[in-house]
Amino acid sequence: MEQNVYFFIGKGGVGKSTCSAIFAYQQSRRERKVVLNSIDPAHNLSDIFEKKLSNKVSKVRSNLFALETDINIWVKRYLKEIENEVRYTYKHQTAFNVDKYFKILRYSPGLEEYAILLAIQNTLEKNKDKDIIIFDTPPTALTIKFISLPYSSLIWLDQLSNLRNVILEKKEIITRIHKGKKNEKETDNVLIKLNDMVSEFRDLVNKFKSESFHYIVVINPDKLSLFESTRIKNEFGNLKIKINSVILNKYIGEKIFLKKIKDIFPDSKISVLEKQKEEIIGLECIGKQKLILSD
Questions:
Q1: Which of 150, 154, 147, 153 is nearest to 236 (CA)?
Q2: 3-class secondary structure for 235-252?
Q3: Is the per-residue pLDDT at 107 higher than 80?
Q4: Within 10 A of 3 (CB to CB), how many other CB atoms are there?
Q5: Whole-number pLDDT of residue 294
Q6: What angle do CA 202, 91, 176 make, to 5 degrees?
Q7: Higher pLDDT, residue 133 or 90
Q8: Above 60 in pLDDT, residue 96?
Q9: Which of 212, 193, 290, 200 is nearest to 251 (CA)?
């Protein structure tokens, strides 16, 4: 069976963690091996499952595993990777003292978003034996940023590659005059790195748009939640990514609101999760919940 990946998306506080935990539990009861990963810096899964989770996969119940990714770890790994790349690429230019520039790298725009992408890739790579991988995502703004990062990066990388090629062509002209013909493109570390990054981001774009990746928007029956979910739909539409499902959480019979959701998301499955008198905490309580597909 092909591995399926699910992203639970929505405004902060709408119940993404709860809905993803219920969905993960339900899938595990169908004898599917499931991994649920919280990539939201404000983790809630430990409280919901009443089990201390960490950056490593832990067994929650039969066929169900979970973890809470520490994004700071991935930020540090990425910064170290950049430092090593710079040192290797410019090892013949140590006179420029590049060390003083490393501290400022931690303030680079897009750093957190790329760290999340690294965490997602790592989860996918290390759990190829699982049937389903579920991601409980950060609030809307950060989620849209990390989803769109590979798309915008490809535009920049294309221009950087063109610029690097022009630089190398100029260098070849000078080298040819003095030493004879020499093709530096095949051995240029910067161009090789740019090409590797293009390949990496193109692979991510293809994954995000593939049929095995599913996007579930969680909404509460209030206007702010609906406005933000509409924004998600529009942003994802620009990236040509389909919203597969919408969950109306904390539902208490708001039929007019439910109709609005159906009108905004005509091509998505609409489910409801009724509001409970008590918080949904612990496996016993999670196991009693049902995500009901609306008429």
A1: 147
A2: HHHHCCCCCCEEEEEEEC
A3: no
A4: 14
A5: 47
A6: 80
A7: 133
A8: no
A9: 290
Calculated CA dihedral for residues 209, 126, 216, 109, nearest 10 degrees = -70
Distance CA 135, CA 123 (A): 10
The residue among 28, 175, 204 whose CA lies nearest residue 114 is 204
pTM of the model: 0.87
Residue 128, number of CB atoms within 10 A of its CB? 8
- Integer Cα distance of 189 and 140 in angstroms: 37
Q: 25 with 134: CB under 8 angstroms?
A: no
73 is written with which tokens?
């770890």
Angle between helices 223-238 and 255-264 (to 10 degrees): 10
67 pairs with which residues across the strands? 37
Domains and CATH numbers, the chain: 4-293 (3.40.50.300)
Whole-number Å distance between alpha carbons of 168 and 81: 25
Q: Which of 100-114, 189-203, 229-243 has the lowest mean pLDDT?
A: 100-114
Token pair of 163 as six digits: 């610029």
Q: Enumerate residues 6+ apart whose C-beta is below 8 A from 30.
A: none
Tens digits of residue pLDDT in 155-171: 888 888 888 888 888 77
- Two tokens, residue 238: 């620009």
Q: What is the pLDDT of residues 69-91, one digit of tens each?
A: 999 999 888 888 777 776 766 66
Residue 220 to residue 222: CA distance in whole angstroms: 6
User: Which pLDDT belongs to residue 172?
Assistant: 75
Query: In angstroms, rounded to a whole number, what is the distance separating the alpha carbons of residues 163 and 220?
Result: 48
Locus of tokens 């973890």: 67
Q: Which amino acid is at 252?
A: I
Half-sphere CA count of 5, side-chain side, radius 13 A? 18
